[in-house]
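pasting for ref
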Amino acid sequence: MDFHQISEKFLNLLKRYYKEIYDDFSESDLDEIIKLRDEILDFGNEIDFSNIISKNEEVEDLNTNDIKYLLYSYIKAETTRYVRDHNVPKERVERRNDLNEIMELYLQFFNNTLEIRNTIFKDTLDLVDNSQIKNLFIEESEKKIIKDTRQIKIMRFKKIKELKSSLSLFFKSGFNLTDESENRDMILKAINLFFLESIEQVSMINNEINILNYAIKEEFTKTSENGDKRYGDNNINNINNKIQKNCPPLNIKHIAPNIRYLTSKENTSNTGFTFKDINNGTAGVVINDRENFYSKVFGPSHTLPTISIAEAADMELKEALEQEKSSNIARKNKEERDQILHDKEYSKEEEEDELKARSWDDWKDLNPKGHGNTIRNRG
């Protein structure tokens, strides 16, 4: 194939990935996804990407048509994850092996993008909170000290939402715009968007692997205690020691609501496994509440607002008007009370005159006019 045919074929793979997996309104058929994954793997076997993109280059030195090939390892990881998540094996060890393989594919994507300098924006690197990714791929000078992991997750979620909104038309156009400069900018934005989303995927995979490691350890421990004859005692002890070294004690905080193994639609059993909090020794059970957890898999890690900024402003304005109205009524009532008190106030002289007038009225009531003028009293 010539370069034009290679480019067209890869663009076709990107279009199908968006349509069948990434698009929120896609109704994917598993057989079609498997076919897409196989074609992506075949494409990687046919093309030697080292002839197109050299390591340690700067993105400014790359041709616009070549930058899109940095997305190959991403769509390879995504299609593999999708297929494996919809064919979850019954054995936990097999599932853990699948997750480790998927993890390696995402790490390959991180490696490919970070090898080309300036491909990943500075503000994107600041949103990396995964220590494994930082230690493997990010230079010390570019690392940012993370003080609040939760805040970083919130900022990353907002950045993903912002990039998705700006790339919507680019994705629907088939990852190819007529204007070369605009097309280049959009491809770089898409790489940064998928970089951030891959961090989220790696975080979920790590959580699931921790759960599986603990479950496998518990399973072998119970087998050893029950004296299962399927395994020799020495073999069980060796396996337990190996798991003990590779699997740190699981704390309650490791139980995340976005564990695909427990929430997979293919995992129809409702069984769980016990765990013990390493801080206080409290025992508990992780139950496979599939439907409840499944609805939260892709949910944000923080509480979303329930009203818009405009609605909040209207509420504040309404409260301010009500407070002002109440203040006016209170002020008016106070003025009325003050006026009444003022009207009832008398000076000392007015009070003496009033008392004198009252005494005179009382005397006149007791001594009506003409009282005491009888014939006997006449001279």
